[in-house]
UniProtKB/TrEMBL annotation:
Superkingdom field: Bacteria
Listed InterPro entries: PhnD (IPR005770), Phosphnate-bd (IPR017797)
Organism: Rhizobium phaseoli
Assigned keywords, A-Z: Signal
Name the record gives this protein: Phosphonate ABC transporter substrate-binding protein
Classification of source organism: Bacteria, Pseudomonadati, Pseudomonadota, Alphaproteobacteria, Hyphomicrobiales
Length: 301
């Protein structure tokens, strides 16, 4: 009898969870930190409107976290339903709880690739032309949970310089996200800043997407004053993830919604993604296996 009662209770809890997920009134979106909060909220406003219209949500809440970890913890703690993460941020979630979220889509560059680069930018006036010229200088990182702004430069720059970053550079520092990191280099607070970029298109435009492109579009930096001094191998584009507690039905619904967004409202799509992309492509956890292993080895969870 006890076994039957426990089974019945478990079944009821499962049904209640399914009902709650199916009858979702509020949809909570985490937005990675580090960039200007006002800009992030403005860029995501159109997405909130589309989600309300498509699914009838009473409320779509936007949470622009102060840093990457804010979104990571929100997904792990169940206070966020959806977010777009970098590959390293997704690895951090997966390492702590493999059952917390499911990746559904990733962005596709204009050339059809599903990867991007970490690039090192310096002021042209600094005289730095390659990363080897930056020996004994200051290196700026974006965020400890950033793929292109920390994990990849941490592990890949030494392959070009022959030394760990903390030995090659006079100092390294975190500058509170990608935007702040690029501006730190532009303002001379660091000599080289590492940031995300498609690496395709024209340098004078800030390439087709990434932080460099965003800052050029806003008029915050003049690309003529900057030079690219380092570029990483191709990095897997980060995933759009859905909290697993919502169930597979919502994963399917949201994947279809986002896949259609670039054609339905390209301006909104470009605002959310911060640049010119082709669209979204399906993705699974296996796409990030290498990043998960690199993160485990380099910085743990």
């Amino acid at each position: 009898m006890l076994k039957k009662a426990l089974f019945a209770a478990t079944a009821l809890f499962a049904l209640a969870g399914a009902a709650n997920a199916a009858d979702l009134k509020e949809f909570r979106i985490g937005i990675l930190g580090g960039e200007n909060e006002t800009d992030r909220l403005r860029n995501y406003a159109c997405l909130a409107d589309h989600l309300k219209q498509e699914f009838g949500f009473e409320k779509v809440s936007l949470f622009p976290a102060a840093d990457y970890d804010g979104v990571i913890q929100g997904l792990l703690g169940g206070t966020l339903d959806f977010a777009e993460l970098g590959a390293s941020g997704y690895a951090a979630v997966y390492i702590k709880d493999p059952k917390a979220v499911t990746p559904i889509l990733t962005t596709q560059q204009k050339d059809g690739s599903t990867g991007y680069h970490s690039i090192g930018l310096a002021l042209k006036s600094s005289g730095i032309k390659t990363i080897k010229d930056a020996k004994g200088k200051k290196l700026g990182y974006a965020d400890p949970d950033s793929t292109s702004g920390y994990l990849v430069p941490l592990t890949q720059i030494p392959k070009d310089t022959g030394m760990p970053n903390d030995k090659f550079f006079a100092s390294t520092q975190f500058n509170g996200g990608h935007e702040n990191n690029l501006l730190a280099a532009y303002d001379g607070k660091v000599d080289v800043a590492v940031d995300d970029s498609s690496g395709i298109g024209d340098f004078k435009d800030g390439y087709t997407s990434g932080t460099f492109r965003k800052e050029v579009d806003k008029g915050a930096v003049d690309p003529n004053k900057l030079v690219e001094v380092w570029r990483s191998p191709l990095i897997p584009n980060g995933p759009l993830v859905v909290r697993n507690a919502l169930g597979e039905e919502w994963q399917t619904k949201l994947a279809a919604f986002f896949t259609a967004l670039p054609e339905k409202d390209h301006k909104c799509f470009a605002a959310v993604e911060g640049g010119d992309y082709k669209g979204y492509a399906p993705v699974k956890h296996e796409f990030y296996n290498t990043v998960v292993e690199v993160r485990k080895a380099a910085i743990g969870g």
